[in-house]
Q: What sequence folds into this?
């Protein structure tokens, strides 16, 4: 580990490079007794892979024949009505077109539970080897095993139509050379962590499970990290999350052909998953023999030949959408894209802080970690400020303000920090955020667009667009955050701080009443004319 340190505005800035794992940790910013580092809050349910070639598992020579076989398989096994047809657009995109006129809310297809891939099914078929895996890992393992099965798998007609890595445009499918253009993004550390985690999970499976699945029953060429990455990418790109408590994740054959539409909702709280407005889990049949099915309905009135879409809604950022699903969304307006933009930023109490132990105790009392990560959005929401500012006020406490760290105030310190504490403290908070955002912005500005375009000229245009879109969105978010806190600094004189609030609480922030004057004033009217704070302070 090589550490390079330098001082700037009394702040220790560190750049850490780990050659062994080839992981680059963004700069550590120790400022105003606080440490700013980059660490993600995104869920660790996604993985990446080593640099890979295009997988040999591709669509067959005749896409038409395979999609007809897929339709026949669904129909023969209990999907009676399919009011759409999987095909490809002139641009090569997978699409699902209406066969007949459809009304909004009309059922397009309902897929029985026996088709679904879930963790419960993976545990049933593969046993304890997948019990400790996440839902994504367990389903991906089952998909890989069924792909490798020599005896025709029940899911074979579906598996042979699945896209390969180069068609998915998921971060899992990107080469190391493509990923490096996201080095300045807050998503970069997540992608690097994916690779390490995926390699670890695969090695565990390759030691405990895959050796038991031998030739001639299984084609062992599929038990590689590359194919494991393909299976994970399929699960993450097309799995349905958070449908209900019993099925936190379901992979349903056929849904990978649907176009994805996304509507950004104006919710105060960012959600982990998107809700799907036209997908429902229903029960069909007599009461004691009911069968669960996943029903897809038309989201709007459609004519024959028009695309049928899955409609997602929520307040998930566009970076998270790329990160988790690798989607190609339909064209969105610039304003909507910006409102979906985000940038993750982290702050922590510095280990060198003179009052580190006191601050740690206070955070422990609130069940908060010493490191907190916040997702900056296009609009600075009240919910974000309510979470971020109290923590940063604690991080930046110094000088005469540290009296509030005394044990006698411990039970009420957080309520005091929920409001501006002092002018100097509030200014330090603003300067810390501004300095951190400026550093991140400068890193992006050193990567011009033409450099990205030239470097990715041999990559798929979708991937180039994703990089350019992330750069544009994150730069915009960082600039707006800087502007917000620069404007906030200009309003600091108008705020009420702890001292004024405390005097008001004691009813002392007012002019003195004549009855409160003890003794004779030194000069006529002096004691009565001056307010308490002017006279004594």
A:
């Amino acid at each position: 580990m090589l550490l390079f340190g330098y001082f700037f505005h009394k702040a220790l800035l560190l750049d850490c490079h780990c050659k062994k794992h080839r992981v680059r940790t963004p700069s550590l910013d120790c400022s105003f007794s606080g440490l700013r580092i980059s660490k993600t809050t995104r869920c660790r349910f996604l993985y990446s892979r080593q640099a890979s070639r295009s997988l040999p598992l591709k669509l067959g020579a005749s896409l038409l024949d395979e999609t007809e076989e897929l339709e026949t398989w669904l129909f023969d096994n209990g999907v009676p009505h399919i009011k759409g047809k999987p095909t490809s657009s002139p641009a090569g995109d997978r699409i699902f077109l209406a066969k007949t006129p459809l009304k909004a809310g009309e059922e397009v297809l309902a897929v029985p539970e026996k088709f679904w891939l879930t963790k419960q099914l993976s545990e049933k078929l593969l046993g304890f080897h997948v019990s400790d895996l996440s839902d994504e890992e367990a389903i991906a393992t089952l998909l890989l095993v069924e792909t490798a099965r020599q005896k025709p798998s029940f899911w074979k007609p579906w598996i042979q139509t699945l896209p390969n890595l180069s068609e998915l445009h998921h971060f899992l499918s990107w080469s190391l050379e493509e990923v490096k253009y996201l080095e300045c993004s807050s998503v970069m550390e997540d992608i690097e962590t994916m690779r390490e985690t995926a390699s670890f999970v695969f090695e565990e499976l390759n030691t405990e499970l895959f050796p038991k699945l031998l030739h001639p029953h299984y084609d062992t060429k599929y038990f590689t990290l590359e194919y494991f990455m393909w299976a994970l990418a399929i699960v993450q790109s097309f799995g349905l999350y958070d449908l209900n408590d019993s099925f936190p994740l379901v992979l349903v054959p056929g849904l990978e052909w649907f176009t994805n539409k996304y509507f950004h909702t104006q919710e105060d709280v960012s959600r982990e998953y998107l809700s799907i407005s036209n997908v429902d889990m229903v029960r069909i049949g007599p009461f004691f023999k009911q069968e669960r099915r996943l029903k897809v309905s038309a989201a709007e009135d459609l004519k024959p030949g028009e695309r049928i879409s899955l409609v997602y809604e929520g307040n998930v950022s566009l970076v998270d959408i790329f990160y988790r699903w690798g989607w190609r969304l339909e064209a969105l307006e610039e304003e909507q894209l910006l409102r979906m933009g985000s940038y993750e930023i982290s702050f922590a109490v510095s280990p060198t802080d003179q009052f580190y132990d006191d601050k740690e105790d206070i955070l422990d009392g609130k069940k908060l970690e010493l490191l907190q990560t916040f997702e900056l959005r296009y609009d600075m929401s009240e919910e974000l400020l309510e979470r971020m500012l109290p923590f940063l006020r604690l991080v930046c406490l110094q000088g005469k303000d540290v009296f509030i760290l005394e044990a006698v105030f411990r039970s009420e310190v957080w309520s005091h920090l929920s409001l501006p504490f002092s002018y100097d403290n509030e200014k330090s908070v603003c300067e810390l955020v501004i300095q951190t955002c400026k550093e991140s912005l400068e890193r992006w500005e050193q990567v011009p667009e033409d450099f990205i375009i030239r470097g990715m000229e041999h990559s798929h245009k979708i991937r180039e667009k994703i990089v350019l879109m992330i750069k544009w969105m994150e730069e915009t978010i960082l600039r707006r955050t800087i502007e917000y806190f620069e404007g906030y600094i200009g309003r600091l004189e108008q705020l009420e701080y702890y001292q004024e609030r405390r005097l008001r609480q004691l009813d002392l922030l007012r002019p003195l009443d004549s009855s409160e004057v003890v003794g004779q004033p030194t000069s006529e009217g002096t004691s009565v004319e001056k307010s308490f704070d002017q006279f004594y302070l």
User: Anything to note?
Assistant: Residues 1-61, 527-532 have pLDDT under 50 and may be disordered. Residues 47 and 194 are 4 Å apart (CA to CA).
